[in-house]
Write a structure and sequence with these properties.
Largest sheet: 8 strands, parallel, barrel
CATH architecture: Alpha-Beta Barrel
Distance between the termini: 38 Å
Radius of gyration: 22 Å
Number of strands: 14
CATH class: Alpha Beta
Number of domains: 1
Strand content: 15-25%
Keywords: Signal
CATH superfamily: Glycosidases
GO molecular function, one term: chitin binding
Helix content: 25-40%
Strand order of the largest sheet: 1-2-4-5-6-7-8-14
Pfam family, one: Glyco_hydro_18
Order of helices and strands: HEEEHEHHEHEHEHEEEHEEEHEHH
Oligomer: single chain
Protein name: GH18 domain-containing protein
Number of helices: 11
Length: about 400
Amino acid sequence: MSSGEAVPPRCPPPHACRPMACSTWAMFLLCAVAADEVRGRAAAAPEPSQARMLIGYFDANSQLELPAASIPFHNLTHIVLTNAVKVDNQGALHYRSKKDPTELDVAALVRYLADLPPKLVISLRGHEDDVALDELAEVDAVRESFATNMAVLLREWNADGLEVEWHSDDPNGGKPLSAPFDMMEQYHFALLCRDLSSALHAAGGKTLSVAVRPGRQEFNSSAFVQHYIDWLALRAYSMRSLGDPHHSSLKDMAAALDEWTAKGVPQRQLVLGTPLFGRPGAALSTANDRNEALRLSWRDLAGSHLHSPPRGDRRGDVFADVRTGKTWWVSGLNTTRAKVRHIFEGGYGGIALRDLHLDARENGLSLVRAASEALRESSRQRHRLVRPVSLFQRAVTQSRTGGAQKQDEL
């Protein structure tokens, strides 16, 4: 595999493939089948592990800022590799080309990350844009062949899972940036996830996760998510709350989580995404007045003398530019720890930090380290609160459960 090359699809050309018809009834039927399968396997399915995930997103484009060898893997349970692989509408994969001689190409980068203790998840986007995912998913033969090939590739790479990130925005096609998935896109996404899930789980238990954004309505059925998706990675930032200067507050966290629990998705399948960057605060007159591209890394905000927190407390969320007076808002040390505690106490799947190269290097300021410490402390507190079990009670419990062991929580 060479950088920048597209892998030819092992499937018929588009004109040889029969497009999948889409209708409200077809979508209902697909979700109903998922619901029946969930109910049918509920009694036999083992209780999922309650271990909380602490996921770090590593951008392949950030290797000059954070070499792979410097990733703080000891604080993480999973690493999601982004911007390394994309797929076109024919199912051909496109790999990132090296931009600098010191960078690792995709093959070498994947090999290195796969050898680290955290589980490796490969993020997938569309090439040239995510419209390719829609076009790939609507053709049966292309979609099915791609799902099989992707599962084989993950097994060859020794990766643990795949995460699909599909943005339904299509400004060139006339669809606004904030528009949710339409019914057709929901149906195609469901088909793609169904086939990927089946292929990945059959290939040694590889996971399928999906990165979702607030209000985009990627899935309309909780039963489908429960059956086919291992977890949803929720983007709980840049939510453009009217009049709210904070782009990733505890209020935003609650809104992102509530959106999916209200649909019936179990807490254990929800992973909260929190950013390692800040945005400028402003008194918004409309919800679209925020410049989405304007951001500063937590490293620059917390570690630079050019940005000063009120009363000198660098654990908070507000920093002022000493030159211009501009105020920046960020999910700082205290807020990030509070998010971790909420995730742990609420029984959610975990927390994800985007992106690792934006974090502060100093241990006392690192948000990744703070999240890891908060997770361990929450776990210790939980174990301290558990009532001691006498030998007699333990014997009775084992006799009733056939000696089944209780799952530990990280």
